[in-house]
Structure prediction request, 143 residues.
Amino acid sequence: MTITEFLSPVLVLIAWTMVMLLWLYALRIPAMQKAGIDPQEAADTKSDWKQKIPPGTNYPADNYNHLMEQPTVFYALMLFAATTGGQSSLLNTLAWTYVGLRIVHSLIQATFNRVMVRFMFFLISSLVLIAMTVLEVMRVFLS
Prediction:
């Protein structure tokens, strides 16, 4: 497997994150304009500007924030594996699984946002990331 093939899940999750960024702008900017919210008001942490726009408008933005959290561990882990000889078909399969689960998580959160449904995908994706980490730790420290 080439390094490009191995790191393709990383690129797909980065691209998906950009989709969520565009989605949040496509919903939030018009909603803020319609509600007459001055953009500077959004900078005030004590402002209740989010209460002035429809709740669903914030779902893609909330998900975008989530994509800035746990996936950073995924990115670091994949780059570590790629640069230290850890490319394996098992790790790559787990990486694609993680990316797929995170995309489904995003779609749930950005559309109907059922917390327990979303949480199940988050939990499963977290377990996949833990498995990936364990594989790398075992490869590095037990080989």
Observations:
- Residues 3-35 form the longest helix (33 residues).
